């Protein structure tokens, strides 16, 4: 297979050429302002403007590879400034020489030569500044892209960890509870085994198919199985209240985005205590924005914001990162908790992709 190399000008160079051609046109029109007022046009002045300005435009274009060399070699600011001063003086001298040769003006005082020289120095500074800004902007975009890619890889690895781990304590406790049920209530043990296998199948299916979005109903079914199995151990200490909008079940949410929030409540609001507690799960459509809002709330001891931020767990941190990356700011995870006031985690996502 053969490939054809394109030599089309980049947008930056098209803009550069267009700017200089526009400038030449303005200069040619200014040079014949009097004749234009008299209703005449001298085409030769356009050629004279081109001949006098085009060499300078071509010379200034060399600032682009020069700025690239500065960037690749990480030239210090003071060294850049000195080099630019020297090259600006050389350019201004060259440009003024071209002007004198092409226009062959009569002898003039030194001040007549000084002002064009300073003008060319300014032209050099403007073009050099623009080229450096373009390169700085491109470097910023590359850095932002690299950061986003790094964040994406981090979230993907953390999601893989979530898929592969299901809390080992949960697995151990669930298997222990099922074994204990086998003797006294075989039917309940069989139901628990089916729920356990459904959870594992859900995790494996999303991983094998590379699925990152599932329906809210599917995610909530996974959460229900998880809570049913936890209730084998917690018994009456765990009371779950469901307040769901049935019209939102087909909305898509990130896979494994709700179970870690529920697991967090089980770990901090139920496991350490013998008292009864309430876990409430709600789904709503926000009236102002139309976003899907799913809230997981417990009446446990809560925690200060600094404590939550310093938590080493993957679950909540990974959910926040996934929402930021997947929805480009249109989704969010909000935490509402104070010591002694319970813990609430609220996920909001668009109801349409």
UniProtKB/TrEMBL annotation:
Assigned keywords, A-Z: Kinase, Membrane, Transferase, Transmembrane, Transmembrane helix
Protein name: Signal transduction histidine kinase
Transmembrane segments: 12-33, 45-66, 78-97, 117-134
GO MF, one annotated term: phosphorelay sensor kinase activity
Pfam families documented for this protein: His_kinase
GO terms for cellular component: membrane
Keyword set includes Repressor: no
Domain Signal transduction histidine kinase internal region: 158-238
